[in-house]
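Justification of computing resources. Each target in the renewal requires a structure prediction run like the one illustrated here; the chain below, 429 residues long, is used simply to show the kind of job we budget for.
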Amino acid sequence: MSGKPNKGPPKDVEKKPKLSKAERRALQEAQRATKAAGGGKGGGGGTAVGPGGKNTTVPGTGDAVATTSPVGLSNDVQEFSHLPPYREKSPADCGLTLSAGAPSGPSPALHPSVLALGLQYADGSVRGANARCKAMMGVFKDVIRDFEPSPGKILSQDLDHTIKSAFQHWTTKCRTHSVSMGSAFSFLKSLVAGLSRDITEKEAKEELTEQIDFYLHERLDFAGKVIASHAGKKIRNGDVILTYGRSSAVETLLRRARDDGKNFRVVVVDGRPLLEGKVFIRALAGHGIPCTYILLSGLSYVMREVSIVFLGAAALMSNGSVLGRAGTATVALAARASNVPVLFGCETYKISNRIQLESITGNELGNPDDVKDTGAGTSALDDWKDAPNLKLLNLLYDLTPSEFVSGIVTEMGILPPSSVAVLIREMNP
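Resulting structure tokens:
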């Protein structure tokens, strides 16, 4: 009696284990590293370190591939396994090889300024939406100035490839780009694409450099001054102003209000692990502004005397929610519970077309070792990596829902969160 043929896999063939998103990402990175080690030729593969320090076999070759395993295994926290795991970046990871016996110096395809800034992004030397954007555009000026077009290629296309390579290097090997960096990069790409085919190399470089300077002046520096002017109208003599961490927009508006002769006191709330408020409060005190410094745990005790809250923003979503340094949403929630108005200072170039409802879908993981370091020498968590059931999570951002936002101070004026979508339509007709 004949039956239907069995189309399923043979019983003696072992099924491949199902990988998580983080494991698949680690496998892809190992495969790319294998290709790079083999000069881009096919047939690469080997053994790589996957998530959790496990060995992952890359099919196709017997050569071992040395890769950097994720530090802290923050991606093992189930709710955040979709986020790229934090990895400590060495100079070699960021494109520089400084070890003895290896070819030293920068990659010939990238400008030295690109590699230097990549290291600063990776180690946190350049931090903050405005600072990262300014540094990026400054490096692009160096790239454009030293750019030499390839013979027989169109200038705009060749230059476009060069700046894209730099941006891709930063985002893939150093740190995920911010909304501010993405907006500025899109602006530069549109400038390069709009270059005339008849323009000379010298004229193109002068035009692009001039437009970059104009962008930084109009969208960052001048915008910050206008925001300070709008926000200053909300500050009265005798006010107690509360802020969190450190924000360049908030610092500018507080300095401007003090220079205008207004008398007020500032409460700087700070949180671990960055403790950016320490630098911020020194700058304010040096400008003659009376200040009080507290940690986030003491927020509820001072909120009763606060008149208004000013906070900084890393990005503004189209639904009116605000992405900010982790802890920002806690401050806004406490202010809302105490009926204290909350104003965010945010330049319009930080506006994103995305809609985000929570802090889980889109976020960034920081170094988990920063969580255990208290600055007091030894810590009870020093051996946390050896504890099988202990994981540390260091989220860099949180999302403040629009209902906790009283207003958003931009260079266009003070807007309610519901008007962000309208502003996007006006800015992009």
